[in-house]
Design a protein that fits this description.
homodimer; alpha+beta; NADH Oxidase; 8 helices; 41% helix; disordered N terminus
Chain lengths: 225, 225
């Protein structure tokens, strides 16, 4: 027997859509052509489009329905400059970990599009949220951050479907970015995203094209128990 | 000027697809109708379909192209029983954190479909992978786990497009699941998934229908800086 609340909801729900083979193939194409974009055209992205993408991202699953995603658009040039300075310092520090040919290759990689991207979007996890009442995160507290990653992945695909590219910059200090953006103490940075129209569409990951790291067949990553 | 490697890749790439408004709407419908499923029909899911979904998941972005996702299908009934026992113990322990009406409501929630789901799929992060050569995770080592979450989110959408439901169980002890499944020490559990055909399609999250936690308008989660 269904609970009364479920009956009420079912009455409100429209008929579920059927996704056919053509859509499944198209979705796979979208997933294949999603790239981590670091080369942007200067064309602006409409503020309404960014809001629409955030609305779609918020349809992602979250532990206990806790919706811990917090989005910050960064337009202020002073703050952007400080973010870029932090990236440059972290990137220089990372370069020191490599030697010889690998160091040369690392130095040649374009790892961010912070200067060109029309939109900077920082995504935080509100680690103090009371939404969800703690459900599902007692043994795995990291589920809160994982929920935010699900929202970012969702946003990324919705953006690509609109011809908009996203690049995820992780070569920054999360605490420093939180300070630059003056967000509440309980907000932990999950991603600093560059968003904009890409210079060109690519099927192959940029790090593969550059010879840094190739794709491995997923069959190698499957065990049976 | 483009690098020679990029030119070679561009020559190999087919023309990029254009995703029209109709596809964008369909994708949003998919995202809206994706649910965390805990009520499964007993019908099996073909092994080839599971492999196909894993192949699509592996197209997700990963830090430094590190592809740290490791998938384990769990068919052995003895192992499944131990996973279910761990869930039940953790769920009982979690219930003790609630009181009064909230405790009653928690106890009434169906939080897993482990007994009915035809497919159990554990997803781990290989924290010792050398793929990606550490790129992008010096200041944010958690990027490795986040990459695995991106793959899971991708798999979830591809599954829903095929009418297949996914439920993410986080009310387990990650270390105990790793022991039960006898995986390498460096593998950290990110998700234990139930996969199968859902009893029914729902637009509204089950925790919202049950009165545990409603959705909040995403506009409340956006700051400008």
């Amino acid at each position: 027997m269904r609970a009364p609340a479920a009956d009420k909801a079912a009455a409100r729900d429209p008929a579920p859509p059927l996704f056919d083979k053509a859509f499944q193939r198209r979705l796979e194409e979208l997933i294949r052509w999603r790239r981590d974009v670091r080369r942007f055209r200067p064309d602006p992205v409409a503020e309404a489009t960014v809001a629409e993408l955030i609305g779609i991202a918020a349809l992602a699953p979250s532990v206990g329905n806790s919706q811990p995603w917090r989005f910050v658009t960064v337009a202020d040039l002073g703050r952007r400059r400080r973010v870029i300075a932090n990236f440059e310092a972290c990137n220089k520090d990372a370069l020191d970990d490599y030697e010889g040919e690998q160091a040369k290759l690392y130095a040649s990689l374009k790892l961010a599009g912070l200067k060109e991207a029309p939109v900077h979007l920082a995504v935080f996890c509100d680690t103090a949220t009371e939404l969800g009442h703690g459900l599902g995160r007692k043994t795995m507290p990291e589920m809160l951050q994982y929920s935010v990653v699900g929202a970012i992945t969702t946003l990324w695909l919705a953006a690509r479907a609109r011809g908009i590219g996203v690049g995820w910059i992780s070569i920054v200090e999360p605490g420093e970015i939180a300070r630059i953006l003056d967000v509440p103490d309980a907000w932990a940075l999950v991603a600093y995203l560059c968003v904009g129209y890409p210079e060109e569409a690519q099927l192959e990951p940029e790090l593969q094209r550059a010879g840094w790291q190739s794709r491995v067949d997923a069959a190698n990553f499957l065990l049976k128990r």
